[in-house]
Amino acid sequence: MRSIRLKVLPGWGLPAAVMLEYVSELSAHFHTEIVNLPGYGTDYPDRLRDMGGLVDALSPQIKQPCVLLGWSLGGMAALGLASELGDKALGVFLLASTPCFVNRPGWSHGVLQDDIGRMLEIVEDQPGHVLQGFAGLVATGDAAAQTTLRSLKDAVAEPPARPATLADGLQILMISDLRNELAGLKCPAALLLGGEDRLVHRGTAEASHALFPGLRAELIEDAGHAPFLSCPRETVKKTLQLLKGMQI
Q: pLDDT tens digits, residue range 184-205?
């Protein structure tokens, strides 16, 4: 497995540093690299208003066949990328992620569109306030909620991206519907969810399996939206089991 390339795409509103311990553990088994979302870590001057723009910005960084592992928004980007990359996408691993972040007709396993809309209205003027509130949502439901929340609040003490970049990410979360991309995957896929996640509800597993019957899904019962922080050992263990099950 060490020869397989694993590209890790972080989520919205948090620096990739929050995933470093998790990624380091995976690096013992895969050739692993973090691919930052545009505007995180380095400046990205263009506005990205939809998933198509995000995929176009990320695609040049995927030069060789790999497994795409994405957390939250990163997982949605992985679905979009897989449909564009063809044979270069060896597999898709969704970590606390979903084809639809917000509820919409036929999908009731996410958050209310109005909740994201309220964040979007103020994030460019009050990015710190929005990020601190988002950190609370990520930790909610977690068995280690206070410890997770402290880690997340420390991570967003300084916003990891420009306010405009944060706004674009929220817009993408709000409007993206990748159910067709999931249903049309041409590579193996797996899903690992926190059983107490308040942003990507556990019903996502069954609903996603209905769209893509080859999907292998697992729950970490006591985890919220960042299981790699609250349940690091179990998250790594289940990640490796699911990746091995892809038989790439």
A: 999 999 999 999 999 999 999 9
